[in-house]
Amino acid sequence: MGAMSAIGDSSDSELASVDGRISAADEAVLPLPDPGLFRGDGVFEVMRLYAGVPFARREHFERMLRSGALIDLEVDRVALERDADALIERIGERDCLLRVVFTRAGRRVMVSEPMPNHSEPWRLASVLYAPNVILDGVKSISYAANMHATRLAAARGGDEALLVRADGTVLEAPTSTIFWAGADGALRTPALDCGILDSITRRHLVAELEVEQGSYSLAELRREAREVFLASTTREVQAVVAIDEADFEAAGPATRDAHAAFRTG
What strands, in cross-sheet order, belong to the sheet with 21-24? Predict the structure, then answer.
């Protein structure tokens, strides 16, 4: 208990909760066996805390329940929210991330994480990707393909991957949605039925801005886009300056409008 008290007094230390038991993150223990660890069978969400207040908390928990329902996993929202309340209280008024995981074994896992630095514009490298139709709409903890796509992009000099189907259709980045504006000023993003995640940040931007949603090819994006940006819980709105060999304006008016819309949404 003494160690836990010391952790609770330090704003620089990360905390974890496993089935409601709070500890230092590096001391947390997950009982085994658990299909979540062994097979990636479970669902998760990542919330952003602004001075200890989670952004879009209700939407995150609702999507977690929808993800679970799509893979026949009954998510215990009441217990998760109770655990979240206790952990957020211990975290205090910090800006950080809160990762929430629910596994097939029914384990409730939460971890506070430091904010990543997404302040600089990024370069994307396109990576061939085949969406898993059976997991459409599921924010699954089976993220190995997404993470490997990022490594493949890094090997080609990119900061992040842009996932593209075999037919050339643009999807998303491994952990964020892509938007772009053409010479006509119209803002575009891939439609959900292309096989992308129903991002909460995407929802907020689509609700606040005029956004065309459809099926777009990589060639069309690289040829017609003037501005490109990524959007997600962790990065909010982040400018993209290049996709493969195509360059774009960094943080132009469409990107600035999107950032303002996120803040007001």
Answer: 21-24, 15-18, 108-113, 96-103, 42-50, 53-54
